[in-house]
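Can't paste images in this forum, so I'm doing it all in text. The chain is below; anyone willing to post the predicted structure tokens underneath?
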Amino acid sequence: MKKRIIQFLYFGLFSILFSSQVVAQTYGKIVGYVTDADNGEPLIGANIYFENTPLGAATDLDGTYIILKVPPGKYNVIAEYLGYKKVTYQDVEVLTDLTTTLDFKMEAESFEGEEIVVIAEAPIIRKDLTSTEARVQSEEIDRMAVQDIGDLLSLQAGVVKDAGGAIHIRGGRSSEVSFMVNGITITDDFSRNQSFQVENESIQELQVISGTFNAEYGNAMSGIVNIVTKSGTSDLRANLDIWSGDYISSRKKTFWNIDDIDPFANHNLQGSVSGPIIQDKLGFFVTARRYFTDGYIYGPKVYLPTGERSDSSAVSMNSSERTSIQTTLDWNIINALKLKVDFFSHIEERIGYNHYYKFNPTGYRGNKDQGFSIISKLTHTISPTTYQEVTFAHKFYELKSNLYETFNDDRYVDPDLAISPGANRFAIAGNDAGRFKRDSQSNILKWELTSQVNKQHQVKTGIEVSFDRVSYFEGNIFRADGDTSFLNPALNVREDFTRKPLKIAGFIQDKIEFESLIVNVGLRYDYFDPKGKLPADPADPYIVEPLDLNHKYKDTNGNSTIDLAEIDPSNEYTLDERKEFWYKDTKVKTLLSPRLGVAYPITDEGVLHFSYGIFQQIPEYSQLYISDQIRLGPGSGTFGPFGNPDLEPQRTTMYEVGLQQQFSENFSIDVTGFYRDIRDWVSTSQQFKTVISGKNYVTYINRDFANVRGITLALTKRFANNYAFNLDYTFQIAEGTNSDPTQEFFSQQGGAEPTKILTPLNWDQRHTLNWNIFVGGEKWGADLISRFNTGQPYTPEAVEGTRGALIITSGLPDNSREKPIQFTMDLNTYYDFKFDDFNFQVYAKVYNLLDSNSPVNVFADTGEENFTLRERIAPVGTDPTWYVRPDFYSQPRRIVVGLKTSIY
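Text version of the structure:
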């Protein structure tokens, strides 16, 4: 790790001094007219500038001005013209990717120094929005009862969380979402999760694009989560946030030990500092956080892994601890050149509940992940209407899972010696001997050019290259032959590989803006080289253990047949010799993806939009590379599924049509209908037959398909008269052939026919309703988040029989029943006060305010989370608590109390 950190620091220094890389859009634009208030004539050469920033422009012959590359946020915008009163618009809001229109009507000056100050009010509808999106600003995040980005995403229309907590946007698989920070992807391509967690304190703006997105965004099919981080400030500011609390619930039967309340069992310490290093030249922003939760599922330590009795003390079985540091440097080198460097680092350790180890909780392994990322972006202003960005990014992510650090740790106990005879019984000895480690790293270089060609056309183009590297190791510890004491364990290595794929992308898009029509049109090109190998003969796939004699022995006499005399160990091909004929190369994949979005303002308060696009995505690297050597097991049977480095891209065609309508000064409604046709989802193949009869295997292939259609409704009341609210409703039908790529394999292993019809997907949540209400004054506030949704589907099974003859009938229609309805509420209340130069805020947050009993899983025979017929006819000796499943429920009520302090 020390070597890794040193390498990373060298890389970071190099990137700051010598490099740059490209970014998707992280800026907004502001345009408008400056006219004489009396006669409406344009004022030529009027100066428009942002207070305390270098941003500004002068009006042209038509009195028009355009200011590009404005970071999202609120600004004071000033207009000055000789002989006229100075006009200042305060709190003008600029959003990523969008155009803010701000017109000035200037009055003649009666005496020198006159000024007009206007409090700007952001438009409640956005006329240049051509697809569905949601935005959350830092001030909103600060007042909500949310802990991380996942909580924020789950509140948006069209977003669903599945039973495992994964995010699905508009019915797609969870792997179809791309996470970006300041325009650079932070998605780990191996698993399609985030490679690091951006803390809420660092977020200036969170943008969620759930509709069709522009050509600058790629390798995603469902949605884009674009995070813009905070920058350095012109004055010194510091913030400190401390909170602590615990789970407080009456559900003792479900959550053992939940009544043992410890006010410090969940705690958080977070601080940030920002300010200038060199005034108006170099600024910084730094935030650090340490977070710990003891979780809410405990196991009594009745046994040690050795099988000895213990003290039955409570051990957390879903704890988590994270430490993170995030830093930003902003350097205005000269007026036309700016460098921004972002550094992200985190380490997290967590344990996921394992029911089998409930009474032996120290015998189960957890996960540890860590990551480092640096993004350095150089912005060069070529002219007032044209700028280019060059960004260089390096990201590293590592995930490992093992009970003890080294495989020969003497605390390991052979899992095969665990005393757990029969079914439905807990482990009372042994420990988890599995272990794996993987890491992903990418060096990304990207260039973008943005030009306001004229008043109507803003053209963007860019090229991005990503050099990826993935490494993976997996194995398990087992007892060496003849060693019953397990004092000399051996390591069985199942996977150990490194792959280096290459991605290249380019795009061009045009934002065309007329008074009555806005068009976003673009085209994206993607190139992907998996740099993998495939067996030249699928009937003999594993190079180390050839099944075909012609591949194992040399044909020394040239008769195209391996004779008995040639079957000799001395005549075998070496591994290097086999490599010459064993493999064929994978194909390079090239993709073209057109995008189109149109917005048509029908009135000053209403906008129609339509959008269409083709979205293509490379499958996650785990499906390409894990077990791609096709190492078959001993004996006969069907093995797999194995990785396939020659998988084709997955493809979605999406359509949407929507209406934004303002119906009073502070109220608006947004209604959108959408349709998605998904093709070439990753699934598993039919059996490949080998040269040995009865020995077959399957690989991943592109075969599954899905269809999603729905409607979203968003009702917004912006803050006025001491309250604001947002309400989002989604009706959605998400159907497909298989929810998971491995589902087809296991279904056919059970004797089912290949899937040919659409069935509800695991996350097919038909009705979702979220609402957020904020009530507040100058020094106080209360924010309530409510979530309601119908149950997600499950596949039923029938259970009947006696304790000695249990019969389970499977094969019933997939996902033909629904889990129970879910409803939760989260509350944040706060009070602000000041003491000397310090600002303070005391607050209390309650998650799952009503301690709702919201199940995420159920028993398949009853559809209930707390009862199964299996319990009545369970085999003799079954532990009565086996069917008490705390992991079938969402978290119980949690209360935290905190204090924030700031100075600036």
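The CA atoms of residues 539 and 690 lie 4 Å apart. DSSP finds seven helices and 52 strands in the chain.
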